Amino acid sequence: MSDAVQTHSPTLTQSPAWQALQAHCQTLRGQHLRQLFADDPKRGERLALEACGFYFDYSKNRVTAQTLALLIALADSRGLRERIDAMFSGQKINATEQRAVLHTALRAPSDASVMLDGEDVVPQVHAVLEKMEAFTRRIHDGQWRGYTGEPIRNVVNIGIGGSDLGPVMAFEALRHYSRRDMTVRFISNIDGTDFAEATRDLKPEQTLFVVCSKSFKTLETLTNARSARAWLLNKLVDERAVAKHFVAVSTNAKGVAEFGIDTDHMFAMWDWAGGRYSMDSAIGLSTMLAVGDEHFRAMLAGFRAMDEHFRTAPFERNLPVLMGLIALWNNNFLGAETVAVLPYEQYLKRFPAYLQQLTMESNGKHVTLHGAPVDYQTGPIYWGEPGTNGQHSFYQLIHQGTRLIPCDFIGFCQPLNALARHHDLLMANLFAQSEALAFGKTQAEVEAEGTPDWLVPHRLFEGNRPSNTLLAERLTPETLGRLVALYEHSVFTQGAVWQIDSFDQWGVELGKALAERTIPELESPQEPMLRHDSSTNALIRRYRQLKRR
Ligand code: F6P
Questions:
Q1: Which residues form the active site (predicted)?
Q2: What residue's CA is closest to ligand 1, atom 5?
Q3: What's the Cα-to-Cα distance from 42 to each of 350, 438, 461, rounded to whole Å?
């Protein structure tokens, strides 16, 4: 095992740094944010950081300067700095798959050099970027046309997980910058409804399918891609049409060729970029087709700026490190089980879904890099909806429920669609929510409003509920790149402290294997011999009975 994955003994929870945090947590117990703010009138400015185009306010967390110092000491003691260097320099920190983790190379400038197994990967990255740009221009200029000579007007991305969530999130986030003469759709689910609804009003003659699969083995994607080919040929008949209406993004040239896509029309990716870390690779081809190559390059510049900040800033002024350590504090010391991500920006409506894969596939792990069971919680559950919709739905539980739910509020100072007072009203809601969560409403305040005694407990807001607020000037392609990289590195920071492999995903395998075994049992015309547990057997029998009706 390389130095980069050596554990730092003693074990995490026995380490002096962890125990110091536990002791410190006891001293903070019973302290209310109301008190912390009253004790330090400048707390709101002191516990905030301006970096990389973001204003990050973390003052409404149950932390003090000492908490942060202890968290940073914990990160130091677990070798976070060395882990960051190991990632950026291409060491094989994805230990269980023996792979480097180089998504940062996907946005490295062309004059940089990142060596992996004796080869510089940066020229390969830029060669693919140039191929994507040339292709995008040909589609936009009408030089690349469909088989019957019609221009391409519809782009349909077929992929799942990292080959879908990043592209769809980025398309929605950057829709404001997108070409309105193109229709961009996404098919991920193996549920035929996804395919049917995405294609029902499209003309095959004008439609390009971008089949994204790092492995080119994923059941959902290959099934959807086969249906896409059938849909196309149903209208265009001639097999040669496929070449004009399908391109692929993959590491697996053989699989692409076997499917029938010309490998000249394949955009390469590499095993050192994980699926959930790949929206800035060729997996982002649909994003580039939607917004153009210049906006895509601007997004890459945003990623790069956050990478540089993460790599070089001291931990106490390092945005992803602070965000990661505060999330870890809320999780491991305050016992929070989830994080609500609440963008006050409609264009970020798919951002929580994107973050779910990034955070939970990365840090949902039960053993350390050495295979030892962990005796602490790892990745929390991420979820969320854009404000203000969430306010009229689940915020009740965040304000008055029995669980502690830290929130990440994300807002922008300038709207992309200025409309009367809308933006001020939107942002007033964001600020009001974090204020209400932190400070609540005391019994005295409720009584002073003339509330009858019996109603007072119902109208009380305990407060002391932690939140971060991230503010940026405006949602641009560059800001989006910075935002995504911020969360990528925050996830990394937490995984490094927990000493887990944030870059594998063995937990998805068992379900896939069982589904493979179950498919013939559902499809076979003869009654199959079922050898599952009694529950699964009964479900399969019932399904077979009812589907025949
Ligand atoms: O099943 C999980 C997973 O492997 C994800 O990690 C990945 O993003 C997704 O499937 C899709 O994989 P592929 O791009 O190889 O089709």
A1: 361 (proton donor), 392, 512
A2: 161
A3: 35, 16, 24
